[in-house]
């Protein structure tokens, strides 16, 4: 019997994720990562581990989600893939937030935002800044939250009407 192709496992994982079967999706992504590793395709293996991390986080398994990201940032960094490196860091941040490790999560959100800014990924930068703003707001750090929101607006590529209004107000000095 032929081994299942990693692309098939990945597609099945995506379908399970879309159906909100997060643990099944995480398992399929893990199997896909292992299959890619056997093929010596470390970039796709790292991608699958990050998908696994997202699925585990959705399933409420923050510690396991963090473990799934281990080593993926370095793989993307070595490959010069700064965007996927930023995604790996932001997945790590979300897992740390899920574990209630607030300071570590904020530091990782900052690193992810910096990586996204470096490669001109304004929308991704905006997403991680909003996540940091929400975390700061939960912690009662209103000024830090406000600064993250303003920074999230700075590089967004396709701002909504509300974002355009907020950008205008910031330029006018209203805070």
Distance between the termini: 64 Å
Total beta-strand segments = 0
Mean pLDDT comes to 84
Number of helices: 10
User: If you compute it from the alpha carbons, what radius of gyration comes out, rounded to the nearest whole angstrom?
Assistant: 18 Å
Can you describe what's shown?
The protein contains ten helices and no strands. The protein has helices spanning 6-18, 22-38, 42-58, 62-69, 72-79, 82-98, 102-118, 122-138, 142-154, 161-172. The chain is globular and about 50 Å long. The chain starts with 5 loop residues before the first helix and ends with a helix. The mean pLDDT is 84.
Task: Detail the topology: elements first, then pairings.
Elements: H1 6-18, H2 22-38, H3 42-58, H4 62-69, H5 72-79, H6 82-98, H7 102-118, H8 122-138, H9 142-154, H10 161-172
């Amino acid at each position: 019997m032929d081994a299942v192709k990693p692309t098939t496992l990945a597609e099945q994982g995506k379908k399970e994720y879309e159906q909100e079967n997060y643990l099944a999706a995480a398992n399929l992504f893990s199997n896909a990562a292992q299959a890619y590793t056997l093929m010596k395709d470390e970039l796709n293996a790292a991608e699958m581990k990050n998908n696994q991390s997202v699925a585990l986080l959705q399933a409420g398994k923050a510690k396991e989600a963090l473990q799934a990201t281990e080593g993926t940032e370095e793989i993307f960094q070595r490959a010069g893939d700064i965007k996927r490196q930023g995604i790996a860091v932001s997945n790590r941040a979300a897992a740390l937030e899920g574990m209630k490790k607030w300071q570590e999560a904020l530091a990782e959100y900052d690193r992810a935002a910096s990586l996204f800014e470096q490669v001109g990924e304004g929308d991704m930068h905006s997403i991680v800044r909003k996540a940091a703003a929400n975390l700061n707001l939960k912690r009662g750090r209103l000024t830090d939250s406000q600064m993250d929101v303003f920074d999230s607006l700075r590089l967004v590529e396709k701002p909504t009407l509300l974002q355009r209004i907020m950008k205008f107000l910031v330029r006018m000095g209203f805070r």
